Amino acid sequence: MLKLHQVSKTFNPGTINEKKALKSIDLHLKPGDFVTVIGGNGAGKSTMLNAVAGVWPVDEGSVVIDGVDVTGMPEHVRAKYIGRVFQDPMTGTAPNMQIEENLALASRRGRRRGLRWGVTNAEREEYHEKLKILGLGLEDRLTAKVGLLSGGQRQALTLLMATLRRPKLLLFDEHTAALDPATAAKVLEITDKLIEENNLTTLMITHNMKDAIRHGNRLIMMNEGRIIFDVSGEEKSKLTKADLMDKFAEIAGAGLESDEILLS
């Protein structure tokens, strides 16, 4: 479903601020793979997600989504293949629009649009049923302005918007980092449910090693623009935080004293 082949990206090349963010990354995801991504600051995690999303062009290599080479496609064209949830709950929704209007925008993503605007009764019924999945009572607040929702409610709504039309690929960039622990746990519970129900292929960056181990069927660790560890299946399920710390120290050649050194 996703193939990154020899993808490289350097920022500010030829200057004192040159940064080789990605160094010949190879990564293949099968349909339905749920891959968690960990690594320290500057490891290349977000750069990799942005390369997939088309935020900026890659210097070398190719990005293929479900057999379609999207390497040269701009971000807005790739949007029809990708659902994305950002770290900031305020990103990804239009605060001055109603819940149902936000969902309508998400439903029309990647489709040709005409002059007609509005939410049909059929769409309203669909959104009502979809919102029930979240278990937050938002199905009874379809006309409420999104700006009035809490951070957790907005992030859950953004999750639903990102999965509404079953994207080929779902991208999460530390989407629970700005939430309190209880709310983060609820959003991750909803995340697992939506991914499983829709059999979505997913890349999830997280700053929390326990979450990286607990969620998904595969885990990759990045360091200095490279993937240095890739584990899946039963081997992943048996991992502990201590195992990851030791593995990072072994591969990256550096001793670690705390989670904060590995993960921001």
Short structural summary:
By secondary structure, the chain is of the alpha/beta class. Helices cover 35% and strands 23% of the residues.
Written overview of the protein:
By secondary structure, this protein is an alpha/beta fold. It has a domain at 2-81 and 167-262: P-loop containing nucleotide triphosphate hydrolases (Rossmann fold). Helices cover 35% and strands 23% of the residues. It contains ten helices and ten strands. It has helices spanning 45-53, 75-78, 99-107, 121-132, 151-163, 181-198, 209-214, 233-237, 241-252, 259-262, and strands at 2-11, 19-29, 34-39, 60-65, 68-69, 82-85, 169-173, 202-205, 218-223, 226-232. The strands form two sheets. The protein has a six-stranded mixed beta sheet, sandwiched between helices. It has a four-stranded antiparallel beta sheet with strand order 2-1-4-5, covered by helices on one side. Helix 3 (99-107) packs parallel to helix 5 (151-163) and helix 5 (151-163) runs parallel beside helix 6 (181-198).
Average pLDDT score: 87
Q: What's the helix-strand series?
A: EEEHEEHEHHHEHEHEEHHH
In the CATH scheme, what's the topology name of the domain at 2-81 and 167-262? Rossmann fold
What is the second-level CATH architecture of the domain at 2-81 and 167-262?
3-Layer(aba) Sandwich
> Helix amount, in percent?
25-40%
Structure class: alpha/beta
Quickly name the level 1 CATH class of the domain at 2-81 and 167-262. Answer: Alpha Beta
CATH homologous superfamily caption of the domain at 2-81 and 167-262: P-loop containing nucleotide triphosphate hydrolases
Shape: globular
Q: Please describe the biggest sheet, giving its number of strands, its sense, and whether it closes into a barrel.
A: 6 strands, mixed
Please report the number of helical segments: 10
Give the N-to-C terminal Cα separation. Answer: 29 Å
The main sheet orders its strands as: 6-7-8-3-9-10
Q: Report low-confidence residues grouped into runs of 5 or more.
A: 257-261
Number of distinct beta strands: 10
Global Rg? 19 Å
Bin the strand percentage.
15-25%
